[in-house]
Amino acid sequence: MEKVYGYKESDLIALAQFIKDRGEKSLSSVFEEFATINGKAKGTVRNLYYALAKLSKKDKQLCKTYLGGKPIEVGEIEEFNNEQETWLLRKVLTAKKQGKSVRKAIFDLALGDQKTALRYQNKFRNLVKKSPDKIVNMVAEINAETDGKTLEINKVLPTQKDSQITEVQFDRLKREIDGLFYRVSEKFRRENKYLKDRVAFLEMENLRLNNLLQADVTPATVKYFKGVKTASYKNKIN
User: Domain map of the chain by residue range?
Assistant: First the structure.
């Protein structure tokens, strides 16, 4: 399937159609509704919107069909530098240590501005997911400050706990794998035994027939296969 700026063209067109029919709804609510209907994260829809903005300036037909001929104008995405990352982590985690939720800490940092809050939230989540070492180091640094409170790392990185396998779970998984291996190997053992028995039977049958063919006194059946015409055979012919 064709992709544009890393996204499915069908998703971009669907979002353009959705935006066209949004009426007086805010862009944020449109993102949320589109995400719910299509099973996507709101942040993903936001990124789709930026990709659609780029496409609207290049694809005149799409722009005319869905956007009334007016390309989407969006501000440039401001990237975080290392200093800003450190500032955001320290502020959010310090507030978390004082008992605030991450969401409340970010909203306060953004001074109530929704776009800024969304930007901070996306960046913090990205750091939690892709740079947990930075989170751990900052938590250790904050906890070193003598204020009588401690921020537990598992309250900031719950995915660490979720990703660990307990000893009981490991033993159960090991038993299931061993059981699966036994069932598969047992099936092959039965098939292998059957084939060996069959080969042995055919070898014995071949030996028996060979002995009959080599015997001095040859039965009528063997004579028949050797082309020897017996009296009974001649009578049937006559």
Answer: 3-67, 82-159, 167-226
